[in-house]
Every structure is written in C-alpha cells, then in structure tokens.
Design goal:
There is one protein chain. By secondary structure, the chain is an alpha/beta fold. It contains six helices and 14 strands. α2 links the parallel β5 and β6. The chain starts with a strand and ends with a strand. Bound molecules: adenosine-5'-triphosphate and magnesium ion. Adenosine-5'-triphosphate (ATP) binds next to α1 and α2.
C-alpha cells in the first residue's frame, strides 16, 4: 500500500512509512503547536520527494499570511509536484464585500446567505482536485468550517462531509483544535482513519515543550508514545522524551 511520510525525523520510522493512501486523518492540537506547519511540511516534502500534487485548503489564514509564515520557517517552493493553496478566507471576504454593496444598493435578495453552503465548498474542492490532479489534501480547520459554512445540524453535516471526503479517494488531513479530552469537535475522531495529536506542555514554571503522538492510524503498527516535537533549519524532528 502506498503511504505518505510525515517527513518528521524520528517519527516516520515508527509509522511504517507514513499515512496510508486514501486515509482521512485528523491533525489535532492546541494553539501554536505547529498544526498548520506540519500539514504544509507533509504536502511540501511529498511533492519534492515523490512528485505528489497536494492542496492546502485554508479557511483560517490568508494565502499571504500563510506564505509569510512558511517562508519565515525556511520552506521553499516545491521543486516538483505541487502544493496548491486554496484561500477560502479571501473568497469569504470578497463575498462579504459583494453582499455589503448589494445591501447598500438595496438589491440584496433574501435568499443570498451570508455564509457559503457546504455544497459550494465541496464543489470547489472537487473541481480543484480534478483540475490539478490532487492526491493529498489538508483542510485548515474543522472549526473554521463549522463557523464559515451554513450548517443546520453541525454534527450531522460534518459527519456527512467526512464521509464525502472519504469517498473522494484522496488522502486528507483535517486540522482540528484540540479540546480537553477530545481530539475534534462532535467526536469526529471516531470517524477518522488516523489521529495525530500535537500539544504544548509546561515542564516547570519557566519552560514549555511541544509534543507529538500518533494516537491512531488504522492499518499501521505504530507507536502511540509522545515524542518531543521540534523544528530546526526547515525540518521537523521527534525525539523520545527523557524522563
Ligand atoms: N522561524 C520559526 N522557526 C520555528 N518556529 C517558528 C518560527 N516562526 C514561528 N514559529 C512558531 O510557529 C508557531 C505557529 O505555527 P503554526 O501556525 O503551524 O501553529 P498552529 O498550531 O497551526 O497555530 P494556530 O493554533 O494559530 O493555528 C508560532 O506560534 C511560533 O511559535
Ligand atoms: Mg494553524
């Protein structure tokens, strides 16, 4: 079975080659734990090494903001394959401006929703996948999806969205804000084929460390241990914690 490495030194060795093809996994973590950076790292290095075409669906940060962060982290453009950044934040903003103008003109019809529908998002994603031959995708983030798209029943709508993702026959990483004792809202962790958890812990009064753990990965014999997670010179590293 084809797998996509995380390109995290010290962790891929414990993951039998990486994320199995066609899995839908959750990258869960508290704020500032490298969720977005890790997702991009996986897309970029799979493009560079295997010529994979990947896509990063950003609902959170604008493309400019994300690119600024990634350049600052030392990432370069892919040398083969590609990483297509789909800036949904910008689309949302443009749509907001359009609606504001219509409202000022008094021509905003009742049926134009302030939010995109999930059907819109699905259409946009599947069109891009087909157009750019995408096989690996990151969605940043689940919470923003819930906030930005019109959902009558968020739990059910996200459940169906998840199943729709699985039927796309590509490999997807969904970024989720970790909540206490759960990996993603609405218990979506149970639906995922895999969960990678990122967290930041206080070691003592003065210092903190980031940690990474592969909580679950269906079909893979992996370690569930927490590794100290760090980023240096453009590469991620996971090392066993010394207790
Ligand atoms: N050049 C750098 N090298 C290493 N770490 C950096 C560098 N620049 C910023 N950082 C760290 O990266 C963190 C942000 O990483 P990232 O955006 O991937 O986290 P995140 O988990 O997605 O955050 P959020 O909760 O905001 O979505 C910053 O909070 C900062 O600590
Ligand atoms: Mg982020």
């Amino acid at each position: 079975m084809k797998t996509y490495p995380l390109y995290v030194k010290g962790l891929d060795e414990h993951l039998s080659g990486g994320i199995p093809q066609h899995h839908t996994i959750i990258l869960s973590g508290t704020p500032g734990t490298y969720k977005s950076t890790l997702a991009y790292n996986i897309l970029l290095h799979n493009a560079n090494t295997l010529g994979i075409h990947g896509m990063y669906v950003s609902l959170e940060q604008s493309k400019e903001n994300l690119e600024y962060h990634l350049t600052n982290m030392g990432f370069k453009e892919p040398t083969q394959g590609g990483v297509d950044i789909m800036d949904m934040g910008k689309l949302r903003k443009l749509k907001g401006q359009f609606q504001e103008r219509k409202r000022e003109e008094g021509t905003l019809s009742e049926d134009i929703s302030l939010k995109y529908s999930l059907a819109n998002l699905k259409n946009m994603i599947s069109n891009r996948i087909e157009k750019n031959n995408i096989e690996l995708m990151a969605i940043d983030s689940l919470e923003l999806m819930e906030l930005a798209f019109k959902m009558n029943e968020p739990r059910e709508d996200l459940f169906y969205f998840f199943n729709w993702l699985k039927d796309l026959n590509i490999t997807t990483m969904i970024i989720a804000e970790a909540l206490k004792d759960t990996y993603a809202r609405h218990d979506l962790g149970f639906l995922a084929d895999g969960i990678i958890q990122l967290r930041m812990d206080r070691l003592d009064d003065m210092s903190t460390r980031r940690f990474i753990s592969v909580v679950k990965m269906r079909g893979v014999n992996h370690s569930t241990d927490y590794f100290v997670f760090s980023f240096k010179d453009g590469f991620f590293d996971a090392a066993r914690a010394i207790i």
